[in-house]
Amino acid sequence: MFLAHCILNVNAKVDGLASYPAAVRGLVDFLTDHEVGMIQLPCPETEILGVQRWGHVKDQLSHPFFSDCYARLLIPFVRQAAMYREQGYNLLGIVGVDGSPSCGVKKTCRSGQWGGDFLDSKETWKKVENLKWVKEPGIFMETFQKMLAEKELSLQFYGLDEAEAKASLPGLIDELSRVLDA
User: What is the pTM of this model?
Assistant: First the structure.
């Protein structure tokens, strides 16, 4: 019997950024159609900063406090992954939200100037113009990768692009299909 397990992180976005009102239904439907179990990861930014937070960049979250909080949030998931692996489950991997400063897998947003107040709109727009996309994981996913590696758990990380969620979904499904067919 083929047992599959997927650790999945979907929609808990900053107000106004969500491409989907709840879970990414096309992805959830695909996984359930293929009898893949899922575990929802917590949104670390919601846990720490709440739902009325502003958008952040990776540079703001690259701080020991956030790394420690993220590690504490991930302990049960690393423990579960190790337990499932020990019981012979096939762990397919982790799906993150590319573009997120926390949950990005292949893409996140950075700026060394993002911070301060919004009192001067011209200065704020200069900060916005300084934002850049970089090809690297967010802090939560980096922490997760390190913690899994410490337990000698090698899992594939997959990204769904938050800015192009509907357009990137078919590519993600194709990638997961190849893994499931292997």
Answer: 0.84
